[in-house]
């Protein structure tokens, strides 16, 4: 479903990054030189020749903040790529909540402070942090690739959870009704949303029948003309299943037998852009291009951690 890039002909440099936790707090240091200067981050650095990655992680924690790691757990491996460089920085990301000793600020990292996790200084941290941090907190192993144009501009990202392959699939259906440049919405649906909820496809039911059943159920429309546009895979990081949603669009400007009750309103698509669209701003506009596509979203609560769009041509 998700393709992970291969980096043939790239060299690799190994880095570590350890995030230290105590109850609902995280220890962060302000980096004063080198890579990530001016950013709050966990502790880590380059793996030396003849050193294991685990040993490097422990050494860097000691050098940068004075603490001795008692135990830690590797949660993620991230390939950082910079446009124009043929070297991948392979970051090994550790979770640690068992340590001893006193915090000692270093030339490289000062100040060092405990932050409430929910108050992490996201604006002065690496941009990628927010995309993989939920997996660290929930200890969900992952592999990721982030492609940077420069330190502040990320142009591509891929995150793959190691347990994704074992997740079960559930097929759901959703039908969007459009007319010219308008989308039909039930009056009961919240201001910020434009889609009715998905319906699960019943055992033995064809997708098309499920779409027709959906239309009758949600819009009271009977028509033969449903067109399948998108297959969207939604993965919530901590759920054991992936929702595969088959999106159909019905253009009722062409339909003769569609009748509507007063429970519905039309919304101009061009006015929807500024609002929260499902699950990101690009989604509905892509759907309305009426060209088939596949999409994948990795989600934690309401945050999209990774999104991919592929058209089927
Ligand atoms: N995009 C990114 N997101 C992130 O969260 N951490 C990153 C990052 N890119 C680099 N880092 C971390 C990994 C590592 O802990 C540190 C950079 O390692 P460096 O080797 O450049 O730093 P140091 O100068 O500390 O190395 P040493 O000289 O070995 O101590 O910054």
From TrEMBL:
Quaternary structure (record): Monomer.
InterPro entries, A to Z: 8ODP (IPR003563), NUDIX_hydrolase-like_dom_sf (IPR015797), NUDIX_hydrolase_CS (IPR020084), NUDIX_hydrolase_dom (IPR000086)
SUPFAM superfamilies in the cross-refs: Nudix (SSF55811)
Residues annotated as domain Nudix hydrolase: 11-139
GO cellular component: cytoplasm; nucleus
MF terms in GO: 8-oxo-7,8-dihydroguanosine triphosphate pyrophosphatase activity; dATP diphosphatase activity; metal ion binding
Cofactor: Mg(2+)
Subcellular location: Nucleus
Signal peptide annotation: none
Keyword terms, alphabetized: Hydrolase, Magnesium, Metal-binding, Nucleus
Top-rank lineage group of the source organism: Eukaryota
Top-level class of the enzyme under EC nomenclature: hydrolase
One record GO biological process: DNA protection
Organism: Aphis gossypii (Cotton aphid)
Protein's name according to its UniProt entry: Oxidized purine nucleoside triphosphate hydrolase
E.C. number: 3.6.1.56
Membrane spanning stretches: none
General function of this protein: Oxidized purine nucleoside triphosphate hydrolase which is a prominent sanitizer of the oxidized nucleotide pool. Catalyzes the hydrolysis of 2-oxo-dATP (2-hydroxy-dATP) into 2-oxo-dAMP. Also has a significant hydrolase activity toward 2-oxo-ATP, 8-oxo-dGTP and 8-oxo-dATP. Through the hydrolysis of oxidized purine nucleoside triphosphates, prevents their incorporation into DNA and the subsequent transversions A:T to C:G and G:C to T:A. Also catalyzes the hydrolysis of methylated purine nucleoside triphosphate preventing their integration into DNA.
Pfam families xref list: NUDIX (PF00293)
Annotated catalysed reactions: 8-oxo-dATP + H2O = 8-oxo-dAMP + diphosphate + H(+); O(6)-methyl-dGTP + H2O = O(6)-methyl-dGMP + diphosphate + H(+); 8-oxo-dGTP + H2O = 8-oxo-dGMP + diphosphate + H(+); 2-oxo-dATP + H2O = 2-oxo-dAMP + diphosphate + H(+)
Major site of localization recorded for this protein: nucleus
């Amino acid at each position: 479903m998700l393709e992970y890039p291969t980096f043939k002909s790239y060299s690799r440099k190994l880095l570590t990054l350890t995030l230290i936790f105590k109850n609902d707090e995280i220890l962060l240091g302000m980096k004063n030189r080198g890579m990530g200067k001016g950013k709050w981050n966990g502790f880590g650095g380059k793996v030396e020749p003849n050193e294991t990655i685990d040993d490097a992680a422990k050494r860097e924690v000691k050098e940068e903040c004075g603490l001795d790691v008692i135990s830690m757990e590797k949660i993620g491996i991230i390939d950082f790529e910079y446009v124009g460089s043929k070297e991948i920085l392979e970051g090994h990301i550790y979770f640690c909540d068992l340590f001893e000793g006193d915090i000692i600020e270093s030339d490289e990292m000062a100040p060092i402070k405990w932050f409430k996790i929910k108050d992490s200084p996201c604006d002065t941290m690496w941009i990628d942090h927010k995309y993989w941090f939920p997996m660290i907190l929930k200890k969900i192993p992952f592999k990721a690739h982030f492609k940077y144009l420069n330190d502040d501009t990320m142009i591509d990202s891929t995150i793959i959870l190691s347990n994704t392959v074992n997740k079960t699939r559930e097929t759901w259906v959703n039908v969007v009704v459009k007319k010219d440049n308008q989308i039909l919405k039930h009056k009961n649906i919240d201001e910020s949303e434009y889609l009715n909820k998905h319906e699960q496809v019943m055992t033995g039911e064809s997708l098309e029948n499920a779409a027709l059943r959906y239309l009758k159920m949600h819009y009271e429309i009977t028509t033969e003309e449903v067109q399948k546009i998108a297959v969207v895979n939604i993965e919530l990081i901590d759920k054991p299943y992936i929702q595969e949603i088959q999106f159909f669009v019905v253009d009722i400007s062409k339909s003769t037998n569609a009748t509507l009750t007063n429970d519905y309103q039309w919304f101009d698509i061009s006015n929807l852009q500024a609002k929260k669209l499902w699950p990101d701003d690009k989604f509905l506009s892509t759907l309305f291009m009426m060209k088939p596509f596949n999409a994948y979203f990795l989600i934690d609560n309401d945050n999209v951690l990774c999104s991919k769009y592929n058209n089927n041509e």
